[in-house]
Amino acid sequence: MSEEDAGGTPAWTREHASSLRRDESNVAPIIYPPEERIDDDLHIWDTWFLRNRDGTIAEIDGYRVIFSLTSPSHLLPGKRHDVATIRYFYSHDGENWTTGGTVFDGGALGQRQWAGSAMYDPDGDEGEIYFYYTAAGEDGAEELTYTQRLALATGGTVNTDSGFEIDGPWDHQVLLTPDGDWYEREDQSRGMIYTFRDPWFFEDPESGETYLLFEANTPVPEGTGACDDPVWEEFNGSIGIAHSPTGDPTDFELRPPLLDAVCVNQELERPHLVVRDGTYYLFISSHVHTFAPELEGYDALYGFVADDLRGEYEPLNGHGMVLTNPANAPFQAYSWLVYDHGDELLASSFFNYFDYNRPNLDDVSLLPEDEQMRRFGGTLAPTVRLGLDGTETNVIDTLGHGHLPLSSEALPKSWWENESSEGGDGYY
Ligand code: FRU
Q1: Tell me: the pLDDT tens digits for 196-233?
Q2: CB 349 near ligand 1, within 6 Å
Q3: Cβ(180)–Cβ(188) under 8 Å?
Q4: Which atom of ligand 1 is nearest to the CA of 195?
Q5: Which of 187, 254, 301, 409 is the least crowded, having the fewest Cβ atoms under 10 Å away?
Q6: How far, in Å, are 102, 259, 287, 288 from residue 301 at the CA level?
Q7: pLDDT band at residue 68 using 50, 70 and 90 as cut-offs
C-alpha cells in the first residue's frame, strides 16, 4: 500500500467546525466601494495570478498578470456564473490594472469556463502558458448544465512588443473527470450542486513533483451511515489532488483526496497551498450555506496545516477559519487566494455583496433588480495582510482594492507599526 493510501483521508470534522466563530483575529475590516473599479464594463470575481512553475508570481518585462472570471456588468450579478468568461488584466505596479481582453477566442471547452490557474513556462514544450480551467456545462447542450471537468489549454504566448498581449492559438483538452470512487460523479450526487472544479497547478518544493489540486466531493452512498444524521451526508466536500508521474504538466492521474469534510461542508472551493519551511498550508473558501445543518459557518477563507503534502492536515486556529467578513457585512468578499509575502500572507479576493446582511446569498434574488446591481462589488477587494505563527493566523491590516504586491515589493507599514513609531498615537 502506498503511503497515501495507508491512512484514512484527513478530515475537517464537525467537532472542529463546531467551534467556528468570529473574533478579532479573523474578521476583515468593512469594505467600501472603491473610487474606481478595475473595469466598469465588467463584473469581476474569482481571480488568479500567472505564476511560474515554482509558484512564484510571473513578472514578464515588468508586467504581472491576473486572470479573472468576468461577465458584462449590465447583467444581474446572480446570472454571471452562467456566462463566465476568463479575461486577463496586467499591471506594472500591482495597483493599477489594465484590461487585456478575453484569454480564449472561442474554442474553450464547456458552456462556460470557471476558475483555474495558469502556469508560465517560457521553455515549455507546448507554448508558454499552461492554462488550467473548469469546463462547466456540457458542450453543445441547449440547456445550461452543471457538468464539470478539469481542462487544460496550451499554446498561449505572451507578446510584449507593444504593450502586453496574450495570444493563441490554444489547444484545449479535458484533463480529468471524476472517477466515482475517490471523487463523486454528477450522477452520484445526492442533493446540492456537486463539484469537480478549480484546478490549481502545484509543484511541491520539497519533492519537485507536479500536482493539480481541485475542488471535489467524496462519494457517500446511501445507507452507509457515514454521518450520525443521514441529512448531513450530502455535505461531502473534498480537496482533490492529481499527480503527474513524469512532471509533464499536461498529464495527470487522480490520487486520493488530501482532505475531506464529509458531514460538515459541501464546497471546499479553490484549494491552494502555501509551503513555508517545509510546512504545508492548505486554503479553501467556503460559504455559510454549504455547512451541514447544526453547524454555524461563515463565508470565509479556511486553512489547514500539515508537515507533509499528504500529511495529517489540522485546521488552522483549531477550527479552520482564517479570515471572514464582519457581522454587519457578512458577504462583502469571497473567493480568497493566499500567497506568501515575507513574514506575512496576502489574501486577495473579490468585492462581493455589500450593504447586505440577510442570512445567505440566496436571498439576494429577493431584492429589486436595481438593488442587486447596486450592492454587488464586482471588482477586486482590498488585499488582506495576515500574520502566521505556527498553526495560528491573525488579520494584520489591508491594502487597497486589488493591490497585489510581489514578494520583492515592500508592504506599507501596518497600522500597529505606525502606532509604535509615532509614540502610541496611531490612527485607530
Ligand atoms: C467560487 C466559485 C468557483 C467557481 C466559480 C464559478 O467563487 O464557486 O468554485 O469556479 O465560483 O463562478
Answers
A1: 999 999 999 999 999 999 999 999 998 889 999 999 99
A2: no
A3: yes
A4: 9
A5: 187
A6: 28, 16, 9, 11
A7: very high
- Number of domains the chain is built from: 1
Given a cut of 50, whether residue 117 has pLDDT beyond it is: yes
Residue 106 lies in a domain: yes
User: Per-residue pLDDT for 2 more than 60?
Assistant: no
Cβ–ligand 1 distance for 266 under 6 Å, the answer no
217 within a domain of the structure (yes/no): yes
Domain that holds residue 173: 14-25+38-421
Task: Identify the active-site residue in 128, 233, 234, 269.
Answer: 269
Q: Is 99 part of a structural domain of the chain?
A: yes
Q: Establish whether 125 is a catalytic residue.
A: no
**Residue 4, in any domain of the structure:** no
Asked about 105 being catalytic, the answer comes back as no
CATH label of the domain that carries residue 178: 2.115.10.20
Rg (CA), the chain: 21
